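Deliverable D4.2, example record:
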Amino acid sequence: MPRLFCLIGALSLAATAFAEHPLLTAYPGSVLTKKEALAFSEYQRIVGMREDASQTEALSGKLTRLTYRNPAGRSPLEIAANYRQALVAAGMRIDYECVGRDSCASSGIGWREIPSWNAINGMNMGAVKDVRYFTGQLAYQSQRAYVSVAVNPSVHHVHIIEVTQMQQGLVVADAAALGSALDRDGRVAVDGIFFDTDSAKLQPTSDTALEQVALLLKERPALKLYVVGHTDNQGSLAHNQSLSANRAASVVAALTQRFGIAAGRMSAHGVGPLAPAAANAQEPGRARNRRVEIVVQ
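Output generated by the structure prediction step:
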């Protein structure tokens, strides 16, 4: 994906590109005062208000925190609007936005005694009234990027967390473990099968898990399986059912064409989000729901 650029009007400002993160550039004239980049970390994304306190969503992934001093003469409204425009143009879905200290619950001071944003995730907005914030998500390099932008009259923060399915299920069960689970439960989720975002294209890192499924089938020549795709609940039901069926079909095709398993021993099906393994309210649960299961026929 090409780098995003903040816009003034309709003009792209590629000439002022910063290198703090490949996803987007800083607002022109801003001065980077702090950068934190972690290969893997937990992050509390602020996604709303609940009983006068910030509501958060727990995420895990590659985390980048950027803090900038605002350029002189630029308002929080203008800075926030430029970031928002650029990100939405690139496909970001806005999940939550707010304006003002009380609406955003950013400072956590006074009688409410609620955690400040600085305490929650490091967005130090101070006790000023003019606070503007939005957060959303978009597809980025076969992953999901969650971007949060908070602006006050002096500084602004850009937090980016990149979530990938590869953070889930990195330990792949071997053929013996898969077989034991089938004997016990008649079904098992196959950890380690990954697809490109919103696609049925298998990622090369899936081969280790596919090899174990193939080994299981070769060790048990009478075994026949349903291969069942599952998704989270993001998007329409029809889209997710189609996506899950296509992903299951990709697994069957790979096992047939590359691992020598007879096509008649497997049947591909997709149920989309209809049989979740966890709640879809937060990303860790959604990650568990994006899975492929094998079921004894």
